[in-house]
């Protein structure tokens, strides 16, 4: 792994996810969250001359980490459009898909992007800088109920309604909540001091999910994975919060993110995937010590029937 990718991101559960992909040397694989290229480089080390790898990332910053190898193709795009992009490159079916849904170190550490509450900056949070809607735009245009729903549904914050009321009160008074610093001033009175770091992280998580439609994109990815995976192909997903993990768990178990069990005329459950790991895989103590940001990572692996 080169110096650029180490700075950009440290991949979580690397060995476990590679084992989960069950890589065939001549197979075709997709890393839908290329980032620093850590998982992609590990995949490339298992591929032979006939193998292919597509690395997706909607943030053009990741292009600097691309792999100089004819078997690798960097795709500047959102994985929500996985099938269309693969079709553009003449690929109808793949042998494995990996998604590491964690935010790259690069995004948290680049203060100007507004992903972290550690430094003041404009409230941006766009993964794709070409996107039109920033976090500041949401807080300036959504009504109080919509902001409260956003904070509650995506951040699981008990004080969501009070926070929303404070945000709307601030902008009504002519002080828009457009920077990290101003957002912290507005929501801190509703945060428990003992839980400050956790609850502030939940506020920023909620805004980031909304700005980038992360759950909508995940739903699209999961649904399209069934259309592009070959029978026996593997789906490997690493999640970092309960909302994503619940969707992935439901999808593997039931074939849909809602977790609805669907039966045929004879009452048989028709599930297009089978779980490879019956219990969720999490980092061991050694990995967490080496990479504290991997602490909340959960790995689920499924095989297309």
Summarize the topology.
Elements: H1 3-8, H2 14-21, E1 28-31, H3 38-44, E2 52-57, E3 72-76, H4 82-88, E4 94-100, H5 105-109, H6 135-141, H7 144-155, H8 160-172, H9 180-187, H10 196-212, H11 214-228, E5 229-239, H12 242-254, E6 273-275, H13 285-290, E7 298-304
Parallel strand pairs: 1-2, 1-4, 2-3, 4-5
Antiparallel strand pairs: 5-7, 6-7
Helix pairs in contact: 7-8, 7-10, 11-12
Description:
- The structure is a single chain.
- This protein starts with a helix and ends with a strand.
- The protein has 13 helices and seven strands.
- The chain is α/β, with parallel strands linked by helices and 305 residues long.
- A seven-stranded mixed beta sheet has the order 3-2-1-4-5-7-6, with helices on both faces.
- Helix content is 41%, strand content 14%.
- It folds into two domains: 3-105 and 214-304, Vaccinia Virus protein VP39 (Rossmann fold, 3-Layer(aba) Sandwich); 111-212, DNA polymerase, domain 1 (Orthogonal Bundle), CATH 1.10.150.
- Strand 1 (28-31), helix 3 and strand 2 form a beta-alpha-beta unit.
- Mean pLDDT is 93; it is low at 1-6.
């Amino acid at each position: 792994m080169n110096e650029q990718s180490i700075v950009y991101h440290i991949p979580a559960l690397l060995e476990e996810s590679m084992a989960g992909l069950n890589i065939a040397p001549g197979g075709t694989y997709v890393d839908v969250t290329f980032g620093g290229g850590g998982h992609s480089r590990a995949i490339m080390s298992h591929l032979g001359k006939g193998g292919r790898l597509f690395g997706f990332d909607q943030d053009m910053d990741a292009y600097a980490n691309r792999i100089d190898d004819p078997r690798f193709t960097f795709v500047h795009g959102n994985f929500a459009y996985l099938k269309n992009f693969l079709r553009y490159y003449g690929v109808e079916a793949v042998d494995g898909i990996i998604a590491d849904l964690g935010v790259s170190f690069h995004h948290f550490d680049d203060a100007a992007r507004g992903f972290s509450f550690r430094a003041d900056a404009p409230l941006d949070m766009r993964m794709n800088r070409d996107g039109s809607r920033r976090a500041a735009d949401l807080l300036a245009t959504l009504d109080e109920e919509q902001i409260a729903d956003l904070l509650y549904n995506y951040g699981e914050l008990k004080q969501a309604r009070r926070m929303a009321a404070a945000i709307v009160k601030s902008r009504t008074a002519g002080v828009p909540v457009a920077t990290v610093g101003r957002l912290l001033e507005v929501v801190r009175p509703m945060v428990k001091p003992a839980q400050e770091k956790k609850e502030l992280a939940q506020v920023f998580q909620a805004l980031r999910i909304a700005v980038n439609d992360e759950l909508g994109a995940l739903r699209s990815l999961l649904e399209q994975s069934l259309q592009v995976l070959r029978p026996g192909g593997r789906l490997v997903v690493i999640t970092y919060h309960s909302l994503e993990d619940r969707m992935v768990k439901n999808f593997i178990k039931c074939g849909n993110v809602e977790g609805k069990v669907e039966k045929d005329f004879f009452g048989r459950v028709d599930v297009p995937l089978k779980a490879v790991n019956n219990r969720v895989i999490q980092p061991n103590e050694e990995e967490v010590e080496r990479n504290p940001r991997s602490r909340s990572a959960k790995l689920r692996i499924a095989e297309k029937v």
